Amino acid sequence: MNLFKRSTHSLARLKRWPKIPLGLRLFLLYFILVILTTYLVSSTVMREIKPTVRQVTEETLVDMANLLAVMARDDLARGTLSQSHFTNVVNSYGSRQPNAKIWGVNKQGTNHRIYITDAAGIVVVDSWQQDIGKDFSQWNDVYLTLRGEYGARSTATAQDDPLSTVMHVAAPIIDNGNIIGSVTVAKPNRSVQPFINMSKYRVLSWLVVMSILALMVGALIAWRINGALYKLANYADKMGRGEKASKPRFRVFYEYSLLSDALEKMRNQLDGKRYVEHYVQTLTHELKSPLSAIKGASEILQSPLSTDKKQLFANNIESETVRMQQLIDKLLTLTKLEQLPELEQRKKVFVKPLFEAIKDSFIARTTTQNVQVVISCDPSSVCLGDVFLIQQALYNIFDNALDFINEGGEIHIQVIQEPSYVQIYIDNTGPCIPDYALERITERFYSLPRANGKKSTGLGLNFVEQVVKLHKGQLNIKNTKNGVRVHINMPTP
């Protein structure tokens, strides 16, 4: 029982957990990885720059000290080093001003110090000329070098300033295999600190820039992943509602393309099965009435009848046969239309010529019913779509309007061109649509009784609705003061 309670409590907490989009979750994980990587790399590099620079400096000082040891050997062996040309050169070196600009750092003077000691550790040459004659045998650089070891030391000139340390590297002066003295080259660590700071700044700057770029790329990828998921979800949702939906395309995330293909294949299979079941049922139901009428008329014709009666029932058979043919033709056309996910071709369609052609095709009916057709449309009014489907939809609206219009009535067509769409208003005078039928007026096989007693297939306005949806437009049918208005909103090029 306690286990069940804990499980229920855990499920309740999961339900209360905020729903974070997958793209955002991936980006948060990526963000943490980038920040951790940047921190680890920056801390490691920052920690290694200073000792690396000092190691390189020490290596340079070793080479310089050994070079000077070779140059000073002969004069020191003869005991003439203090008055030699070499000593004058060293003293001149200490007073030089290079005025060099290295990586943006101005170098105004030499910061190397050179001093030479004899075998006893007594300074005989000093580029700074301040410690000549002093005993340096106690310093590690001299002490170790005179004993044949590597001599180096780092000494701080100020105890509370870590940057005041000076690096000393010595090399032995050897004559005939004996160490007769040492050469020490000293360089303050403060002189290389600007380069260390500059290196740290540049490395840190590049790390920050690369991290920002990496985060931007990660954000873009996460956004695309999330957008692709929403496209698939929207596609599946529209398919579930039976709406027209174009299959989303993915150029980068081809795995999503495989999923969208699978969804479309599943939709086609399910739609095909449902269509077969639905149309068999509806077609069977709709054909019962004319078949019954034909059967009844044929049975009556087999009995003795007058010529007028035979003609009446023969005409009845013919009209019901025509009705069945129209029903089958329209149903096949509508089925083909509903199977189209989107238009294969979209072209500019000038609206006024369509209405003029439809008006001419109904000239016999409008003349017989004394109906006036008024077209208020600019010749430049244009929409985007399939000219045949649009013409057929408008034809169905006209045909439907003439079935209900009062004799001597009027059909008024008004077209208003907008920047992104065209508004088409078709008003006809006559009886209004009953309130109970307004919501079902475009439903398949739903029709209202005509004044002339003619029975409709109930597919005309449904065809119009499918054409408008296929063009991504809007259809609205409502009652007006004097009759019925059909409002169509179609996109423009």
Which helices and strands occur, and which strands form pairs?
Layout: H1 2-16, H2 22-78, H3 85-94, E1 100-102, E2 105-107, E3 113-118, E4 123-126, H4 140-146, E5 151-156, E6 165-175, E7 178-188, H5 193-241, H6 254-301, H7 307-339, E8 347-350, H8 351-361, H9 363-368, E9 372-376, E10 382-385, H10 387-404, E11 410-417, E12 421-429, H11 435-438, H12 460-470, E13 474-479, E14 483-491
Parallel strand pairs: 9-11
Antiparallel strand pairs: 1-2, 3-4, 3-7, 5-6, 6-7, 8-10, 11-12, 12-14, 13-14
Helix pairs in contact: 2-5, 5-6, 6-7, 7-12, 10-12
Organism: Pseudoalteromonas undina
EC number: 2.7.13.3
Transmembrane segments: 20-41, 203-223
Task: Describe this protein with a few key phrases.
Helix Hairpins; alpha+beta; 55% helix; 5-stranded mixed beta sheet; kinase activity; Heat Shock Protein 90; histidine kinase; Beta-Lactamase; phosphoprotein; transmembrane helix; kinase; 493 residues; disordered N terminus
Please provide a written account of the structure.
By secondary structure, this protein is an alpha+beta fold. The protein has three domains: 157 residues, PAS domain (Beta-Lactamase, 2-Layer Sandwich); 70 residues, Helix Hairpins, CATH 1.10.287; 145 residues, Histidine kinase-like ATPase, C-terminal domain (Heat Shock Protein 90). It contains twelve helices and 14 strands. The strands form four sheets. It has a five-stranded antiparallel beta sheet with strand order 4-3-7-6-5. Strands 9-11-12-14-13 form a five-stranded mixed beta sheet, with helices on one face. The longest helix is centred in the N-terminal third of the chain and has 57 residues. It is rod-shaped and about 160 Å long.
